[in-house]
Amino acid sequence: MLLAMVVIIIIQVFSRQIFSYTPSWSEEVSKLLFVWVSFLGIAYGFKEKLHIALGIVINMLSENLQHVFDYFSKVLIIGFGVIMMYYGWQFTVLMGNSTMPGTGWPSSVLYAAIPVSGFFVTFYGIELLFKKGLHQDLNDISEG
């Protein structure tokens, strides 16, 4: 998706500069792909434990209390994914009757990224329940 977005933007800039013509669909499709890449990136961040954390306060707590906060955070992630699925689906259905002007596609194609991403956030959140920790341990990363 990212490669397609880059190619479409290059075509748009090239055709605008060389031919003084911009395809009506190019900006809209690149925006659509950007939204999808961004929302799927949220879910991928949970899968690979890439989201940032503020561990200064948590690391001062006892190990048992750290596990409680870790579990609570994972439950919040699952809840966030469920909310994204529920309200994202409602919004996608609501926007199904409107169309995007450049492509003529239904606007729900754009907004469907919300419930789809919510599904993956929920799925990876459940998967995180069975793994220790919520974030990558930077001390374990070896160079080269």
Descriptive account of the structure:
- With 144 residues, the protein is an all-alpha fold.
- The protein has helices at 2-19, 26-47, 55-60, 63-94, 108-111, 113-129.
- The protein is elongated, with a radius of gyration of 20 Å.
- The mean pLDDT is 88.
Largest sheet: none
The geometry reads as elongated
Helix coverage percent = 55-70%
- Rg calc: 20 Å
Distance between the termini: 29 Å
> What is the SS-derived class?
mainly alpha
Average pLDDT taken over every residue: 88
How many strands in all? 0
Count of alpha/pi helices? 6
Provide a concise account of the structure shown.
This protein is 69% helix and 0% strand. The protein is built from six helices and no strands. The model has no long low-confidence stretch (mean pLDDT 88).
SSE topology:
Elements: H1 2-19, H2 26-47, H3 55-60, H4 63-94, H5 108-111, H6 113-129
Give a quick set of tags describing it.
single chain; 144 residues; mainly alpha; 6 helices; 0% strand; elongated
